[in-house]
Amino acid sequence: MLSAEIIAIGSELLTPTKTDTNSLWLTEKLNEIGIEVKLKIIVGDDELRLKETIKDAISRSDIVITTGGLGPTEDDITRKISAEAIGRKLIFREDILASISKKFLKMNREMPEINKRQAFIIEDGDVLPNPNGSAPGMAVEIDNKYLIILPGPPRELKPMFENFVLPKLKQTAGEIFVKRKVLRVTGMGESAIDEIIAPVYTQYKNPQTSTLFNRSEVEIQLTAQGKNEDEADQMLKDLADKIVAKLGIAVFSVNGELMEEVVGRLLIESEKTLSVAESCTGGLIAQRLTEIPGSSKFFVEGVVAYANTAKIRTLNVPSDLIEKFGAVSAEVAEAMAKNLLEQSETDFAISVTGIAGPAGGTEEKPVGLVFIGYASQEEVKYIKLNLPGDRHLIRWRASQAALDFLRRKMIRMKS
Amino acid sequence: MLSAEIIAIGSELLTPTKTDTNSLWLTEKLNEIGIEVKLKIIVGDDELRLKETIKDAISRSDIVITTGGLGPTEDDITRKISAEAIGRKLIFREDILASISKKFLKMNREMPEINKRQAFIIEDGDVLPNPNGSAPGMAVEIDNKYLIILPGPPRELKPMFENFVLPKLKQTAGEIFVKRKVLRVTGMGESAIDEIIAPVYTQYKNPQTSTLFNRSEVEIQLTAQGKNEDEADQMLKDLADKIVAKLGIAVFSVNGELMEEVVGRLLIESEKTLSVAESCTGGLIAQRLTEIPGSSKFFVEGVVAYANTAKIRTLNVPSDLIEKFGAVSAEVAEAMAKNLLEQSETDFAISVTGIAGPAGGTEEKPVGLVFIGYASQEEVKYIKLNLPGDRHLIRWRASQAALDFLRRKMIRMKS
Question: Which of A36, A81, B177, B276 is the most buried (most CB within 10 A)?
Answer without folding.
Answer: B276
